[in-house]
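The records we work with from here on pair a chain with its fold. Here is one such record, which you should read through line by line:
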Amino acid sequence: MFLIPDRHALRRLRHDLALVIPGLPLTLFAALTLLPLIAISAALSIVWVGVLLIPAVLTLASAWARLDRARLRRWGIEVTPATYRRRGPGAIGMLRLITDSRRWLDLAFEAVIALPVRALTAGTTIAWITGAVGGLTWWAWGSLLPERNDVLPGQWALVMVVGLVLTLSFPAMVHALALLDLVVTAPLLGGAVPGSSLRGAIPPPRSAEADARLRESAWTRMTIAFLAFVLAVVAWPVTTTVYEVHPAPAMLVTVAAAVSALLAVRWPWAGLSLSVVAIAAMMLVTAPAQAAAPWPWPVTSLLTHCLTLLVLAVLHRWYWSVSTWSAGAVLTLVTLLLTDASTAPGGTLREVMTNGVVLLAVSGGVVLLGITVRQWVLVSGQIERAQTLSAEEVRRRYELEERSRIARELHDVVAHSMSVITVQAGTAKFRLPGLDPDTEREFEDIAASSRQALGEMRSLLAILRTDEILDEVPMPGLEDLTELLRSTRASGATITAEISPPEVTPTVGLTAYRVVQEGLSNALRHARGAAIRVRVTPSGGALLVEVVNERPEDPQETIPGSGLGLSGTRERVRALGGTVEAAARTDGGFAVTARIPLADPLPR
């Protein structure tokens, strides 16, 4: 698609270059201003002068971070606005900035993380441009190089082909480098807004649970990346020096082990696989060593393996960390079985076995610790959600009580007056004999209109008494009882139902649905495990709704209720002229019975 670039491709290329190329000088300037200030504040902290300088350093880092966020928005990705702690008045208020974790994260990114990332992206882009231009123009300047007069025509063609390939792949490479910059920058500076349009950028982050939120935390990624980097930097020379391993394979196995911890943050299967491969490779490359050093698990390898296990145990389900621990145990056992006691690298076979036992004990403890931390995080999230839901329920109950009060006022004032008008208009021809036919029809029209208005008033009262927003949530009716029973059975309740409803108005259907819903909730709350019978049938011009639960076989402590459920049900049914009975049965069960009139109860 790059052979004939269209206007869109060229515009995207300019867009990507505007993100990648200026990133390096801006980040370099930010690092050159921040790092000396950090060093000065650290050196002067012993006399407390450096402490006063830290807020200024954090403020400057946040300014650079805001510039990076603006660059991301210009590229097309929306970043969640950062929330900073406000500074207070005076010097004490300025020191409050030290407790702002968001500013410390900005400082860590701008001073440490951004520079190597931008150096990689900008350096690769410049090298790609140089190779493409140099390959295409080799024919013009290649002969001017010393000792290059004997270049064959085939070599000229090969260099030009390489330059052409670099040129054609340049837009894709720049776009990939821009995405790499975004993958690192966006999460650390706030993350993409869910559902935002990224116009070809990285996809928005998925909504997650408590562990997913921890997994997406910028602090989590930074901490793991820092620990992995430190372990790789320490393990490489240790493996090379102590175990006499060539620097190249030592670098590969140590970097692979560290990268497995990074991959485990997002992709547990990748972290597990690479960790097992790195462990096996480390055992192989250190096996020829004759020094009396720990083997088959060098100390640095053990620490890196524990880091991967901790990441898997805290951020993912338990079987990922247990599987990785089991893989390490199996590799250790295989190594012990294949090791010759006379040539054991770590000394005697007993010392090798001791090394394996230490690995199993330490890594097993890390797995247990990680699983415990994960459960604590999940439980804390559940408690927080429960508290939020509880506060929301209290607010909704308060709103429902207020709406019920308004409904009662309307019922007492307006509904009473409308009832009087209906009765007077309907009985006028009996109370006032000798009315002409036109006047009688007029009174009949007044009575019919008032009855209709009173019926609409009752519908309005029912709406005011419900706790749902009816313009956003569909009103349930008798046709939704099947789904209500199915969802209740899914909770483990045993329910038998007899439902043969006639054609009813939406208000009657909604009221009957609420009666059944409250009866089921009442049975599940106070008689868990008891069988429940639901009956909705016509009976003598009314709709009979019964919800009966038997005595539970194993009485347990009941879940306390607010008492508003049955009270609200009575108000709903009473507003339609019906009755509700809720009482205990002689056999130890409980029954909720409602009779809802199908016809207008007003006189005609």
